[in-house]
Fold this sequence. Notes:
- By secondary structure, the protein is an alpha+beta fold.
- It is about 25% helix and about 35% strand.
- An eight-stranded antiparallel beta sheet has the order 14-13-10-11-12-15-22-20. It has an eight-stranded antiparallel beta barrel with strand order 24-25-26-27-28-29-30-31, surrounded by four helices. It has a five-stranded parallel beta sheet with strand order 3-2-1-4-5, with helices on both faces.
- α12 (about 395-410) runs antiparallel to α13 (about 420-425).
Amino acid sequence: xxxxxxxxxxxxxxxxxxxxxxxxxxxxxxxxxxxxxxxxxxxxxxxxxxxxxxxxxxxxxxxxxxxxxxxxxxxxxxxxxxxxxxxxxxxxxxxxxxxxxxxxxxxxxxxxxxxxxxxxxxxxxxxxxxxxxxxxxxxxxxxxxxxxxxxxxxxxxxxxxxxxxxxxxxxxxxxxxxxxxxxxxxxxxxxxxxxxxxxxxxxxxxxxxxxxxxxxxxxxxxxxxxxxxxxxxxxxxxxxxxxxxxxxxxxxxxxxxxxxxxxxxxxxxxxxxxxxxxxxxxxxxxxxxxxxxxxxxxxxxxxxxxxxxxxxxxxxxxxxxxxxxxxxxxxxxxxxxxxxxxxxxxxxxxxxxxxxxxxxxxxxxxxxxxxxxxxxxxxxxxxxxxxxxxxxxxxxxxxxxxxxxxxxxxxxxxxxxxxxxxxxxxxxxxxxxxxxxxxxxxxxxxxxxxxxxxxxxxxxxxxxxxxxxxxxxxxxxxxxxxxxxxxxxxxxxxxxxxxxxxxxxxxxxxxxxxxxxxxxxxxxxxxxxxxxxxxxxxxxxxxxxxxxxxxxxxxxxxxxxxxxxxxxxxxxxxxxxxxxxxxxxxxxxxxxxxxxxxxxxxxxxxxxxxxxxxxxxxxxxxxxxxxxxxxxxxxxxxxxxxxxxxxxxxxxxxxxxxxxxxxx
Length: 664
């Protein structure tokens, strides 16, 4: 076994590899850029080596810097994690030429499976069903439009070296094919250094299901069940689970055996994933093979009990797999949500900044958090916006979902925008609970974007009860401050008006020996909680239901969040509530005649100038942030009055790009 390895990556995956290496008694070497000087993976590793500027192209993607760091540290092998250099065959060859071991497959397998066109040809030869399409490289946008029309819309434009949702666009028209080709090409060039694009038919209403495979250098390959990854946004996975609620044993076996056959065709050794589209009749079609560890690998580990990083390390040293196909059993259910630094209320635009508060749920009772951040860490514009992967395990799917919902409610992040409200709404959705999902789930359920979860009567009641309880605790504590004049009537004996929006109720708390009761009208709610002022999460049993509600201070009361729903809850005396209703409402400034930069990012291009007339839906500018291009479009017909930004400018969120005036 290796005595020391270098991890050519950053963030949560570097931390994940370090944990297993430490368990196996292997020393680790981290590499870091200027932006990651204080990163968690740097702190966790046994040693760390600086490799360059913040931009990945000047640090994590520079092979000779990685190799120099390995030589300097005396590492015997390199683990690539995922992304960056993990699927670069030339990097593997350079590692081997330097006399080091690569903890992953050999260059031949990476080269064959990393190119989507070549991999589909190999799959077809192996008898694996593939999606129809045009597998030759598209020369330009005009040819993309022509071929898309021949295949028939909708089509998928894919970068041949793409992955992780980058370099991929769905087109339903000639215009979208033209724009999609250019964006896919640009993203692929910037992310992978390869701008080749091909086109295939987009299968509507599909499920995205993948098979985990594991091979050694002695020709042994096994599959470890499947992962359901159908909940996606912009082809980026959002929720993953294992096993799939859709597959039966026969389909699982057929998909697994075909995956093994494909892996054996390229002498695959290490952990890898074969991805499929599965239609409503359980017909499956090969998409691609990822020759690396997947982001969602923890759910497979949870239901099989197999540490995939450990297996990668053992295989890389030449060990035979100690696990046979007969040894693989799937027990229980696991679910993973990807917690990202993005604003779901602003079309999921990336968010950067410092984590002023970061309190993950406790990792116990089937809850696992894989992360590379900590309170005070900074989310940089230079890398992927992932904060953490939240994994829950239960004996049943329902149990895994229940734990996921509770863990999301307890996950407290402040300082940046994040997608936890959206994740909470997803896993609480009745359709998700029923296992009724396709890759169109998010588009179908949130066609106008995410506006927040619904304030149901249940949540409204929970917020009212929690606010009344917390208010009583705070008032009681205030009355005990030395030198403070205690009110003649103890605050817990008073009735308070609790308001959410236009709804208001009288609430009174009755302290009892081991718990408290909140009386709302004729109903009483039993509350057991050890919450104290200052705690950011209210955890309690309310009528024997376990709840977790996030708390932020509001001018009058609290802003509470649960199940993806946030609401301002006002706590007032009867007189205060009456006066509040007389207050004038503050009207927000009208910014409808401005195009604002929706996120901190780089202006790639500006498509219009002063005096130009634009139509609703017309592309106005392209902004790049966190390795993704975002096309900004006109919301209405107008004339450009002023342009305040140009290509190459770096803008902050809500900076003005251009101003409009109404078209006569």
